[in-house]
Amino acid sequence: MDIACLFIPHFVVRAEQQREPRLERRPVIVVRSGSQGRTVTDASEDANGIIPGMSLSQAISRCPDATTIPSDPPRYQEAWNHILDGLESSSPLVEDGGLGCVYVDIEGMAHLHGGEENMARALLAAVAPHWGARIGMAPSKFPAYIAATTSAPGKWSRVPEDVPGYLAPFPVDVLPVPGKVIERLHSFGLHALRDVAGLPLSALQAQFGWQGKLAGELANGIDRRPLMPRQPQIVVRESMNFSAPVITTEALLMALENLLGRAFGRAELRGRCARMALLEVEIYQASSFTKRVTFKEPVAGKERAYFVFKNLLADLRLPGPVEAISLILLGIGGEAGRQISLFSDVRQRDDLNEAMRELQARFSSRMPVYKVREVEPWSRITERRRVLVPYCP
Q: What is the mean pLDDT of the chain?
């Protein structure tokens, strides 16, 4: 297998800079609000000492001159999907590694493009230059990712044949394992990948479970994770421009009802449901704003969607005359119905799965939720009795 990793650092910040070019000349912090308060989603390179997950108060204390911007996940996902669509024109096997990171199967592509140089240029050409994308190539995903992060914007690099030797000097912080595992590795004096590569896999697994085994294999240049091709996503968009700007919520709702009817009447939505909707409102001589709705249960018709939007916009005060509106339906799937089980434990599991899918649609990412599985309950080593595995609805 031959893998290319295309990497765009600080993708979220770059997306905001595309919307507001003035932000390119000042430190920027993108912030999200959650149960733990306001935390950093991303920060520009000149916002020194600020990392994702840091609280906003800590970030401001380290960079008081930074401009703070509320996070807008649907906008970032829409921009990222556009990039993924462009890359799929070069290779049908494209894996979404999260915002700013994508893996492409390039097996045999060099011959089609007349060499690796031309192939790399073709991949970079699929992404607009302002994103500052860079590419790394290797036999597997992890070394390709490391090579991409060390390449210059608009450039590419190939990992040498001695993959373990290439990875050896990099810090353990680059490993795709939880932060607590990274902290424990440092506490044991394992600061570089060469330190981890020199340990037996059995010792790492005994101490850290399956994540320790993964870290040991990756440090030795062994990445068994297959490339998971991206599944095509359906996005339905309908827009309307007003001949004369409207100033009342009632007029806005009438236009929205029309857009919902047009959207749910399209062929690609027959027998399908939408899980999330975005309403973009363009204001005359002012900045536009977006209202987002994540439906508790997937909707298959305009009536239910209109009811939800009507409640959402009931107390809306328009900041000015509305020139145009756009409706975007996302999370399209074939969930046309739901049968409720007679057994309470099955209903609880179904409710949990539904809540997980709603959270994934709302935050455009997989939730860090795990379940406990018994492996060796008789073992004297605590870490080997149970393991945490990702919960997939």
A: 84
